[in-house]
Amino acid sequence: MSESLSLRLAAEIDLPALRTLMDLAIADLLKPFLPPEGVAASFEVMGLDSQLVRWSRRATLFGGDHSAGRDARMLDPTTEPARVRAMYTHPHFTRRGVGRRVLDACEAAARAEGFQSCEMAATLAGEPLYRACGYAPIEHFTATTSGGYAVPLVRMGKALV
Question: 68, 85, 149, 156: most buried, per Cβ within 10 A?
Answer without folding.
Answer: 156
